[in-house]
Give the backbone structure.
Amino acid sequence: MTDLTSLTLAEARDGLRTKAFSARDLAEAHIKAVEAARPLNAFIVETPEKALAGAAEADRRFAAGTARRLEGLPLGIKDLFCTRDVQATAGSHILEGFKPIYESTVTQNLWDAGATMLGKLNMDEFAMGSSNETSYFKPVINPWRARGSNKDLVPGGSSGGSSAAVAARLCLGATGTDTGGSIRQPAAVTGIAGIKPTYGRCSRWGIVAFASSLDQAGPMARTVRDCAILLREMASHDPKDSTSVDIPVPDYEAAMTGDIRGLRVGVPKEYRLDGMPDEIEKLWADGIAWLKAAGATIVDVSLPHTKYALPAYYIVAPAEASSNLARYDGVRFGHRASGPKDIVGLYERSRAEGFGREVQRRIMIGTYVLSAGYYDAYYIKAQKVRTLIARDFDEAFGVCDVLLTPTAPGPAFGIGDKSDDPIAMYLNDVFTVTVNLAGLPGISVPAGLNAEGLPLGLQLIGKAFDEATLFRAGGVLEAAAPKTPAPGRWW
């Protein structure tokens, strides 16, 4: 039998339908892979019993002819999603031991479609990070290594556990969340696909909040098609989320026709940054050539306020984080310190013990920009810039259908290489934050390896709620790019 962990999600789905193997076979293969890959530290909690129970139900449904669309497909769930009776920590000590009594809307949608859970995936604490080094449960290690090197690399962040698990063939797909690039950037540096849908496409109910006007759930998988299959089930209107939009969810897989003749692809000149590595410039040029060869029309566009996106993001996101994380005080929610003699001391020590350094940094930044005397100078100006960035996209989409850019400014870097330089770390989101500020969809497509044998990705940005066009163009881009192989198993 073929190694079942080498199958894409679409291949596994089709194999189960033709009874080439059973759901139990598929679950057991992935459970063994998860156990063997513990040195990667991709999972915080493993749930093999849930995967096997789900597989048993799937096999019964296949026998009865009542199988659902994701029946028997084992997935990993980012630990930002609340999962009933299974620990949900957001990668933080302050939530360690918290077992929700309810299920997030997105994960409930997946279970209703027949998917099964292998466990909860590691992540940057409260989704704050670009390398998965801020997790209380220690860093995730990228399954990729540079050619001829044994140095451990980061898997991107904050959805680093998700990207590493998918790339290492530990699960068929995974959930991620994207506040400033946290699906697309880790997907790019691990050689997989990942899409941040339009804000409002997937419910945020039951997802631990970082920045409420920016957070959006999305799928991460080995191929663009696999992401299309997953997003169809993850997306829904949810009355429990006031930002959830009530519009139909298309069949994204059916939209992948392979035909992009006449598609207008915009290339924003402002994304050509000073000092951009030659390999990223070449990758971008290759992507333009691949789409042009497939019949697309290339259009030069301008997004003039792009240079203000990163500073605006790092005002808006910490401000919202400061507000959202105020609830974790040792009284209402979260870790409670022992020893303080008064309520102020309890708050201070509980939060000092419960939050890591990066989370504390962002809370302080956010509290500062929201404080009297600075609210107008920083927060209000950042929101005005956000409006201008969204306007830039509206004008660009007057002459094009999608935009093509790099996903990340470089390949995966070594663990510890940027830990002491927050600004260098924040620059990993330079190509992705604009999409969140404007609430648009963006997909990262695996586009081959660099000279050191490390994965690189290209990003397509689409119009609001036009994920179908992103999947159509992304499938063509993926097919034209050099195939990204599986990472060599060194763990």
